[in-house]
Amino acid sequence: MARKTKNPNPEFETLNELKKKSGEGRYKVGLALCGGIAYGVAQIGVLKALENEGIKVDCLAGTSAGAIIAAAYASGLPVSRIEEIGINTNWGELFSFRPSRKGLVSSGPIEEYIRKYLKVDNFEQLKKPLAVVTTDICSGEEVIFTRGALDKAVRASCSIPGIYTPVELEGRQLADGGMAENVPVKALRSLGADVVIAVNLFGHHQVFPPASNVFQILMRVWYFFVREEAAWREQSDVVIEPDLRLFDLFDFSAGKEIIAAGEKEAKKHMPKIKQVIQRRSFFRPEIYR
């Protein structure tokens, strides 16, 4: 695909471009939320646990399902409202069946979903800094949105190749961020996070029953691909990995139970999170005032 003339002010940046700017601002505690299809709502439980312990999240990065939740939290929605939305979300709100040469379904409804529930048009209206991770499927580059239209960025981050049609923007074909960085720790560090709390929903190996349709087959290929990437661990201060093996990767009806599993696991890590924040505040007092 031929590239268009480069826009001097694009809505997104590659990871390397964002890294060059990371020194421009520092944030205390950052939260990296990963992709995970129906498992994604477990990360709402992590937010609940952090808030219950009085731990303030200063910036976020999200991939795929994690991008939806991170955007909701950054928009200023109360966690209780995010939980309500998560429990009541169903597949029908996230795609429309429009087979094409580039995908089986359209991800257009994701944009409508973001506008409907978040009531935010762009990154500039968010209450907290946010990085949304996508993948350029022509170059393989990690492409990160930190400004511009929020709904389009989240849509691109959720567009699993083969399932969803890629999002065409600025001469790039953008798809699910999990192909580049499912647990978006590098993006979060580049945004300026000082303490990184990472959530990985694929930390416990899942064995599925036989697939019954092409959607399940493609989703499982995506699952096994993204769970193998583990370089993000080295840059994480705390890793939270809920055990979700009792739940189906595609069962949105189990949202309440999945959220509870995420909250339960996050609570186990609270002593370490507080210890890391305390230690970092001692060595970096200038950003903890």
Structure characterization notes:
The chain has 289 residues and is α/β, with parallel strands linked by helices. It has helices spanning 15-20, 42-52, 65-74, 79-88, 108-118, 150-158, 178-181, 185-191, 214-226, 255-268, 270-283, and strands spanning 12-14, 27-33, 59-63, 103-105, 130-136, 142-145, 162-164, 167-169, 172-176, 193-199, 238-240. The strands form two sheets. Strands 1, 2, 3, 5, 6, 8, 9, 10 and 11 form a nine-stranded mixed sheet that branches. The protein has a two-stranded parallel sheet with strand order 4-7. Helix 2 (42-52) packs across helix 10 and helix 3 packs antiparallel against helix 6 (150-158). It starts with 11 loop residues before the first strand and ends in a 6-residue tail after the last helix. Mean pLDDT is 89; it is low at 1-5.
| Mean pLDDT metric | 89
Strand content: 15-25%
Shape assignment: globular
Count the strands? 11
Order of H and E elements: EHEHEHHEHEEHEEEHHEHEHH
**Radius of gyration, Cα only, in angstroms?**
18 Å
* Residue runs with pLDDT of under 50 for 5 or more positions: 1-5
Rounded to the nearest angstrom, the distance between the terminal CA atoms is 49 Å
Task: Please estimate the helix content.
Answer: 25-40%
Give me the secondary-structure category: alpha/beta
The number of helices is 11
Major sheet details: 9 strands, mixed
